[in-house]
């Protein structure tokens, strides 16, 4: 369990009363106190999956490129510049001479090349390759055991020059590299095999990074303390002295800690608290697009969702306007497609609709007239109130529209991830955010046959062909047209049930400065500072 109940009450009450609040004292010291959702699964940048992990890891490591918090475009990180070949298939990155690991040793092109091999190693089983290096020539073949690493298009030209040769032109590749982090080979190998997922190299006192902060203390389910890294290549621009991340399973407990002066920023807010903040403290309430979607994945490998008619019936019986307007709120937008609108110049023309009669007709056609004979289905969600409230609303909608019984199964986030991998679900909660590169490919490519994030295990040759055609297309307009066709096909087959396009909803104390109001700018810790 993370902080909660009596333990949490004792924690924040210890900072209440006549004394200054913990957040005010920390502000004078330059220490940001951040609520961070659930306890991170890992701090190895090649193993992380969720937002709580990324928030910490992005403080400890830096890639060749970074995301500009004001423009959301790739900016120089460890690489001071890069060149692209005329055909768009080769990128050459030129590393800064002053890039250092937190132990003072130089960060080199070889560090990135070795880290790329580790990230792609089947024994590591990283879920992150699909967003970063999968575009490099030979990576997919290597992961699938069809080719050696020597055929992969990554070349060290000299200690400060690294070249990537891609399978095909990929205009968003520099953005994809913002979350490809190097790891120090000597440190990783010091603590065991380089593919050991349980290695001790990421523990406090062992971890060596190259980001603006360095890990000082990690007490499981209590706190992660990161202090300013004096060896960081741009240390003079870092105004915080450190960041303490606190895990909270319960957003209500996190909000209480914020309200009592124990945090500067929360990871979220309880649904029932949003309106009160809008009325009473609008200056601390932040609602901003998260460039993402919230959806349910359907298990297409077994009944009843192996039948497209049943999948489409559930979608047609989903009143997204009511879900957002009466339940979710917080600036969310009912999803009319899977990909959020106006992403890299792309907006889908597929339009999801609410039509109960059409849903009932499809269910009857599938052999389940008035829900008769349709077995109860199980919906797996994270054990947080936010997900439970959404699930209960949909449970009622589907019962009223389709006479179907939906049972809810609550799991901690790490257990839910394991359930996805083992396909132990009928429906299961998911959400994606285009944090690294803003392109429809981010949302559509995972659904190809055998895709790592294709957790529905759906397979459709027509969809695969449309994605392949889009990948090979060099004309930007034609490429987006192919992707629209692919999304039409995805939504006709419905292996995934889009619900709404998301927002970040959180509280930010007035003493936190430098926040730009852009998606995930609260994670741009290098750009933030505190004024007591």
Describe, in plain words, how this protein is organized in 3D:
The protein is α+β, with helices and mostly antiparallel strands and 532 residues long. The chain has three domains: 1-38 and 212-284 and 508-532, D-Maltodextrin-Binding Protein, domain 2; 62-188, Dipeptide-binding Protein, domain 1; 291-503, Dipeptide-binding Protein, Domain 3 (Dipeptide-binding Protein, domain 3, Roll). Helix content is 30%, strand content 19%. The protein is built from 17 helices and 18 strands. It has helices at residues 5-13, 22-29, 51-60, 109-120, 139-143, 173-176, 185-190, 251-259, 274-280, 308-316, 320-328, 356-365, 385-402, 413-422, 441-444, 461-472, 476-493, and strands at residues 31-35, 65-67, 74-76, 79-84, 90-95, 154-158, 161-165, 213-219, 223-228, 242-246, 285-298, 333-334, 377-382, 406-411, 427-433, 496-507, 512-513, 529-530. It has a six-stranded mixed β-sheet with strand order 12-16-11-15-13-14. Helix 16 (461-472) packs antiparallel against helix 17. Mean pLDDT is 93; it is low at 1-18.
How is this structure best summarized?
This protein is an alpha+beta fold.
What is the CATH top level name of the largest domain? Alpha Beta
Report the CATH superfamily of the largest domain.
Dipeptide-binding Protein, Domain 3
Low-confidence stretches: 1-18
Gyration radius over CA:
23 Å
N-C termini distance? 32 Å
Q: What is the fold-level CATH name, i.e. the topology of the largest domain?
A: Dipeptide-binding Protein, domain 3
Strand order of the largest sheet: 12-16-11-15-13-14
């Amino acid at each position: 369990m993370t902080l909660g109940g009596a333990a949490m009450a004792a924690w924040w009450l210890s900072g209440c009363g006549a004394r200054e609040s913990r957040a005010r004292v920390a502000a004078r010291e330059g220490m940001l106190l951040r609520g961070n959702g659930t306890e991170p699964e890992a701090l190895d940048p090649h193993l992380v999956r969720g937002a709580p992990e990324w928030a910490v890891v992005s403080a400890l490591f830096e890639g060749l490129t970074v995301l500009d918090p004001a423009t959301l475009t790739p900016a120089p990180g460890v690489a001071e510049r890069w060149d692209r070949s005329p055909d768009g298939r080769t990128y050459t990155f030129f590393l800064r001479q002053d890039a250092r690991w937190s132990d003072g040793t130089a960060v080199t092109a070889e560090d990135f090349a070795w880290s790329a091999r580790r990230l792609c190693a089947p024994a590591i089983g990283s879920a992150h390759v699909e967003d970063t290096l999968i575009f490099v020539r030979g990576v997919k073949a290597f992961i699938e055991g069809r080719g050696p690493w020597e055929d992969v298009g990554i070349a060290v030209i000299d200690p400060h020059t690294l070249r990537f040769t891609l399978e095909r032109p990929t205009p968003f590749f520099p953005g994809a590299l913002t979350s490809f982090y190097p790891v120090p080979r000597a440190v990783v190998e010091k603590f065991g095999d380089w593919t050991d997922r349980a290695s001790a190299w990421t523990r406090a006192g062992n971890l060596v990074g190259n980001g603006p902060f360095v890990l000082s203390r990690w007490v499981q389910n209590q706190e992660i303390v990161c202090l300013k890294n004096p060896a960081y290549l741009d240390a003079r621009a870092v105004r915080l002295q450190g960041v303490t991340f606190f895990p909270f399973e319960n957003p209500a407990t996190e909000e209480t800690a914020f309200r009592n002066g124990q945090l500067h920023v929360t990871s979220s807010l309880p649904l029932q608290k949003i309106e009160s903040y809008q009325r009473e403290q609008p200056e601390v309430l932040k609602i901003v697009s998260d460039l993402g979607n919230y959806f349910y994945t359907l298990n297409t490998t077994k009944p009843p969702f192996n039948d497209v008619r049943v999948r489409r019936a559930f979608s047609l019986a989903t009143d997204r306007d009511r879900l957002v307007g009466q339940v979710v709120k917080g600036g969310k937008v009912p999803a009319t497609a899977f990909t959020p609108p106006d992403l890299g110049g792309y907006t889908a023309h597929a339009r999801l609709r609410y039509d109960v009669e059409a849903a009932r007709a499809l269910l009857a056609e599938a052999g389940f007239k008035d829900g008769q004979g349709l077995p109860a289905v199980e919906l797996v969600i994270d054990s947080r109130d936010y997900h439970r409230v959404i699930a209960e609303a949909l449970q009622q909608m589907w019962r009223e529209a389709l006479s179907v019984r939906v049972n809810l199964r609550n799991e901690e986030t790490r257990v839910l991830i394991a359930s996805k991998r083992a396909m132990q679900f009928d429906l299961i909660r998911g959400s994606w955010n285009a944090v690294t590169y803003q392109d429809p490919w981010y949302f559509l490519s995972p659904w190809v046959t055998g895709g790592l994030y294709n957790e529905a295990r759906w397979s459709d040759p027509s969809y695969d062909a449309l994605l392949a055609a889009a990948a090979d297309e060099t004309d930007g307009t034609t490429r987006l047209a192919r992707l629209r066709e692919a999304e039409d096909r995805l939504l006709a087959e419905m292996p995934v049930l889009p619900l709404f396009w998301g927002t970040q909803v959180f509280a930010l104390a007035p003493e936190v400065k430098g926040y730009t109001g852009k998606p995930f700018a609260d994670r741009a810790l290098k750009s933030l500072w505190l004024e007591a």
